[in-house]
């Protein structure tokens, strides 16, 4: 099989952790990276798992935003120009 080399820079700790997980799954890191590249080419998209938990700050901001929405404290605009005009009027 003809191969090409890809060099990437990453933190040593990240590489070591990724190698350990790959080994636990029965793969080497190169196989996993190769599979990800094939998936990118095949599907023309990058899949991200955003399963990380939101911060307390974000949770509070979302709660406040939802309370504002329920109380009718929001504005809607039909065009970007309307939004820009509205925000300019707030700073005058």
By DSSP (H or I, 4+ residues per run), the number of helices equals 4
Percent of sequence in beta strands: under 5%
How many structural domains in the coordinates? 2
**Biggest sheet, in brief?**
none
Low-confidence spans: pLDDT under 50, at least 5 residues? Answer: none
Structural notes for this entry:
60% of the residues lie in helices and 0% in strands. It is mainly alpha-helical and 92 residues long. The chain folds into 2 domains: 12-43, no CATH class; 56-91, no CATH class. It is elongated, with a radius of gyration of 23 Å. It starts with 11 loop residues before the first helix and ends with a helix. The mean pLDDT is 91.
Concise description?
The protein has helices spanning 12-24, 29-43, 56-70, 80-91. The chain has 92 residues and is mostly helical.
Keywords for this entry:
elongated, 92 residues, 0% strand, mainly alpha, 4 helices
